[in-house]
Amino acid sequence: MRDLWARIRRRFGRDVLATTAVVVIALYILAGLLALAGVLAPGYSQQIGEAYAPPSAAHPLGLDVLGRSVWERVVQGSRVALIVGFFSTVIAIPLGTVLGLVAGYFRGWMDAFVVWLYSTLDAVPTILLLLALALVLPTGKGLATVCIALGVTSWVSTCRFVRGEVIRQKELDYVRAARSVGATDSRILFVHLLPNVLHLVLVQASLVFVYSIKSEVILSYLGVGVQNFPSWGVMIDDARLELVGRGVWWQFAAATAALFVLVLAFNLFNDALKDALDPKEG
Amino acid sequence: MTKPVWGALFRPLWLGILSMGILGSCTPDWGRGEPGSVYRGALIANLKTFDPAQASDSYSNQSQFQVYEALYEYKYLARPYEIQPCLAAALPEVSADGRVYIIRVRTDIEFQDDPAFPGGKGRRINAHDFVYSIKRLVDVRTQTYGWWIFDGKVAGLNDFRAASEKLPPLPDSVHPALYDREVAGLRALDDSTLRIELTRPYPYFKYILAMPYAAFVAHEVVDHYGPEFLNHPVGTGPYVLKEWRRGLRLTFERNPKYRHGFYPSEGTAEDSANGLLADSGKALPFIDRAELYIYNETQPMWLNFLRGNLDRSSIPKDNYSQAVDPERGLRGEIAEKGVTLTRMWQLDLIYMCFNMIDPVLGKHKKLRQAMSLAYDVETVLDRFYNGRGIRAQSFIPPEISGFDSSFRSPYGTYDVERARRLLAEAGFPGGKGLPAFSYLTIASTEMRQRGEHFAQNMAAIGVKVNVESCTWPEYLERMQNRKFQIVGASWMADYPDPENFMQLLYGPNKPPGENNASYQNDAYDRLFEKASVLSDGPERFALIERMKAIAAEDAPWIFVVHRQAAVLSYKRLGNLKSHAVAESPIKYYKIVGTRK
Amino acid sequence: MISFLPRRLLHALATLFGITLLIFALFHWVGGNPAIRMVGKNATVEEIARVSRQMGFDRPFWTQYLDYLGDLVRFDFGRSWETRQRVSEMILDGLGPSLSLAIPAFLLGTVVALTVALTAALYRDRWPDRTLVMLAIAGMSVSMLAFIIAAQYLFAFRAGWFPISGWEPGLRGVPFLALPVGIWIAASLGSAVRFYRAVFIEEMRKEYVLTARAKGLAWPRILTRHVLPNAMIPVLTHVVMELPMLFTGSLLLENFFGIPGLGNMSINAINASDLPVIKAMTFIGAVLYLGANILGDVLYAVVDPRVRVS
Question: Which residue from B410, B392, B582 is spatially nearest to B501, judged by alpha carbons?
Fold first, then answer.
């Protein structure tokens, strides 16, 4: 564990790009938290000027169809993105990790079942599965449903990687040693094996996070995402028509850029993380 | 798998890039066929079916009327809208009590040729075809949306429907015995005479006989194609369906057996000035081939119109200012292309519907009135309809009899101060004590934005509204099950009679009927029962006036907008007059001059 | 050599069972009562109950599920609730347009990605590689939606180089397809380049490459004659695994460019809650995925006899 953190710290200390990425992500989180607390961009739904007012000193990112501040809506959008990213990851990662550990360790029918489960889930086209889940979940349409739907569909690759790694590691000396001194299965699984697959889990968590943010945009765009609240997907949906018809580019540019920068930062962060944890790189 | 791989990798790449560069700059070949004989129009939705029993949307109507015909059709030029005989020989002879219709059916008209007929030759139509077509519509197993137009109106027809319920589903059992069953109110006395007996004297029944649901279909064709009938339209109309590429295009060609349509010779002075009477008396149609392009989005339709690839187009909301200047005239750069602008009242009503069984909304009249006053409809008109339309004051739109431009609802203005006062009088000063309301709408960009605007307006008087979007089927289901609080709705006239609008607030029409508000006012209902069996005249208008006043005071709806459509067309498309009931009657159009 | 095949097929069959169960259960509960849709507007409760009974929607879950399996075996997906067309016919109609977009995009995309990845690998850790990798990461970070909207606006609307939307069969369709194909390639390039680059670099670390290098062979020659052929296994597997994508194409691309393919059909079906169509598309997508998986395994085994799937 401590070794893991040391490796990450060393790697990120060296790499300017990775450090920048971490700072950018931190800024987004800060903005999201401030928005959540009602400090930043509280008036996102109010009309503060003429419809489609272009960017100006008073309104740096311009106004939208109902005279609302695009800047405040972008900030509120980052709050949605982070919530979706966080909660889907929190659902998907433990699910994938535990199932992967159990399947890889016990093998037998349990393994067969888990493999069957994730093969099935993996085969069904994701977007259709997401849409169906968004319709069937009792939470109704909205933020919670998006998080749950993304969470329960995106644990597959985590599970697959963890299972593979556990199958490889359970024959290693340290596991045999633990077993020979009479450690229980759950102890071996969570005290001995888990820390040794944690590097995989960490990378997967970061991937699921990015995937969820991008999916939220598409789902909201398709009308099954976040309701009654500005999200980047909703903004892009708004912007699509006004861009071609009226040449109103600022809402499209703002939402796209906000999404781009966050995803880019995560991708860079993820690369650095992978490099830091790659045993070959040391 | 060694050396050749490298070379093979590169060649297709360069070929691909080259071909993209060369071909990418060409425009598609739109100029097929002879110029002047082809009409190209647009449909802004996927066409569903060619079965007249399923003609539940205006796109289906438009497409089906090129092929199918009914006893009556709308006059092309006459306003207000009137009907004229089509497959009937004359207007119906109505008995003195208004309940019995005798209709002469033409027997000199043939169905188009089709393999479903013996020898592949379409036979002559007769009165029995009409009886069959209506029986098929009414048969429960046809699963039509159109049953309501006959429900309870024709003697014995409801019994027929009940009998069909006991049969196993189609297509396993056609049960000709069912169709042999006599219906007292719907009989062919001989090949050319129909007798229809109504349960009450509905004066607007003649319009129902012009709806696509009442089109003539041939039983041979229905039996021959079975469930695939919906892909094989066989009618008597000016065109036959040549090709249907789903999601892309419909192609019609002139029906060589069509002989019974002639260009109208009556019209107003304005029609004559517009050159709309030049072809009076000439045989229809003028255009040999019609192509309707299907667009899921308005943007590509608009751009193809600007490039001259379509002859006619509506103007998408966000492109309106590109085409029309603030004085409502066509902008120079568009006019130079040889484009003209026509406007037409759409015979519709956009409204917000309160659910009257909701414990809060239903109980507090003043709350509903306050919300009506707090809704900034002028901005809605400007922002979402480009000023195309007027604020609605009642349920009856312009060009429908009973419309009165001087009628004002006491709550049909934008007055935030009065709204606040009423809200306080209702017991909710500044919105205190009110729950958040849900506003239900269709999941489309524009509908959601309209909802957000409504919520913004309501927030200004302290009423919290959350916008909830859903798919169209979900929307219908929730309206039927009354699972909503406020809903954005619209109604387009099925026929040009005020009854079509008045019935929307008639108590017994509560869900699953069309009275989505579940509004119930005995005084209104009694007035409706009287007005619906009267012909237009001072007596009927007086009743309608009283109904409007009741509906305005009770405010089960916020009356929002009556829309006016703006249609653009190239001057090469002649004989064009917009028709709100029978949209795109291509048989009257002609192409003058050539496409650029 | 491919003795693992029977077991692999058995696995596939089990997965297929899971897929049908998942799809059926999901739509059984999502869809509500299909009878409501069939009876149409303004139906009474009794009417709905009657149609339910007639169509067998009131029977137990498992009976209905078995019927569903039976229909699937006969390639019968029922009829669309929205258009009442046979779903199997709609799928056949949409297949051509979808493939006309997907196949060129896929082939060109793979070739471009391999070329770029080779170039990057060749200049490993020098500025061309760094630039390409940065571009790839940047490309991966752009939402597909943004790609489509921006490209359609700039190249089709503003510049007028391409038609805005539409589709025609045969060669006449090329101008319509050029832009969506280009967008598809651009949008998928980032992750593909990164994957292939990693494969090539992994290969370049191997001993035989070092030996060749020691013998004085030039890098381009080593790459084309040794690295590329050897890297074919992971590349091929990757390519095969992407194949099911060809079927649905890109839902968004088809929708924006008005291509009447399966993706467009799916979006329309979603908007209309047309469950029979969604169900069929989900099922076919899943089956293709399974097929591609098996094909991938077989290819893997054929190319590399050491491999045995456990």
Answer: B392
Number of domains in chain B: 2
3-state secondary structure (DSSP) of residue B482: coil
Give the integer Cα–Cα distance in Å for A48 and A56: 13
Helix (H) or strand (E) segment spanning residue B24: helix B4-24
Residue B57 within a domain: no
CATH of the domain at B425: 3.10.105.10
**Choosing among B304, B452, B486, which should be mutated to test the A contact, i.e. which has the most A CBs within 10 A?**
B452
Any B CB within 8 A of C90 CB: yes
Does B497 lie in the same domain as B355? yes
B19 by DSSP, 3-state: which?
Answer: helix
Q: What is the pLDDT of residues A42-88, one digit of tens each?
A: 888 888 988 899 999 999 999 998 999 999 999 999 999 999 999 99
* Confidence category of residue B170, pLDDT binned at 50, 70, 90: low
Angle CA B421–B426–B430, to nearest 5: 55
Query: Can you point out the beta strands (E) in C125-181?
Result: none
Report how far residue C149's alpha carbon sits from residue B299's, in angstroms, rounded to the nearest whole number: 12
Q: Is B203 contained in some domain?
A: yes
Residue B25 lies in a domain: no
- Residue B435 sits at φ, ψ, to 5 deg, of -75, 170
Give the pLDDT score at B340: 92
Which superfamily does CATH assign the domain made up of C87-303 to?
A: MetI-like (1.10.3720.10)
CB contact under 8 A, B466 and A45: no
Chain B residues 17-36 with CB within 8 Å of chain C = 19-20, 23-29
| C75 or C220: which leads in pLDDT | C75
Res B173: pLDDT: 53
Q: Measuring CA to CA, how many Å separate A76 from each of A30, A70, A89, B449, B491?
A: 12, 10, 20, 17, 36
**What does the alpha-carbon distance between residue B463 and residue B456 come to, in Å, rounded to a whole number?**
9
In this structure, what token pair is assigned to residue B510? 């509560």
Cis before C128? omega within 30: no
Contact criterion met (CB below 8 Å) for C96 and C249:
no
Which chain C residue has its CA at the smallest distance from A244's CA?
C153
The complex's ipTM works out to 0.86
Give the C-alpha separation, A25 to A23, whole Å.
Answer: 5
Question: Which of B383, B466, B467 is nearest residue A65 as measured by Cβ atoms?
Answer: B383
> What does the alpha-carbon distance between residue B497 and residue C309 come to, in Å, rounded to a whole number?
73
Which of C307, C200, C270, C280 has the alpha carbon at shortest distance from C24? Answer: C280
Give the residue extent of every domain in chain A. Answer: 2-43+64-277
Residues from chain C contacting residue A127 (CB–CB below 8 Å): 251
Instruction: Give the per-residue pLDDT at C247.
Output: 65
A253 lies within 8 A of chain C by CB? no
Q: With the CA atoms of B471, B476, B481 and B482 taken in that order, what torsion angle do they form, in degrees rounded to the nearest 10?
A: 90
Q: Do B316 and A241 touch (CB under 8 A)?
A: yes
Residue B316 falls inside a structural domain: no
The architecture in CATH of the region A2-43+64-277 reads Orthogonal Bundle (1.10)
Residue that finishes a domain, picked among B221, B246, B280: B221
Tell me if A119 and C15 make a contact (CB, 8 A cut-off): yes
Task: Give the nearest partner residue to C26 out of A136, A222, A236, using CB atoms.
Answer: A136
Q: Where are the domains positioned within chain C?
A: 87-303
> pLDDT: is B16 or B149 the higher one?
B149
Residue B86 belongs to what domain range?
69-221
Contact between B41 and B292 under an 8 Å Cβ cutoff? The reply is yes
Question: Picking from B61-70, B416-425, C74-83, which range would have the lowest pLDDT averaged per residue?
Answer: C74-83
Q: Name residue, tokens 């292939």.
A: C196
- Best probe of the B interface among A50, A241, A252, by most B CBs < 10 A, is A241
For the segment B454-461, the average pLDDT, to the nearest whole number, is 95
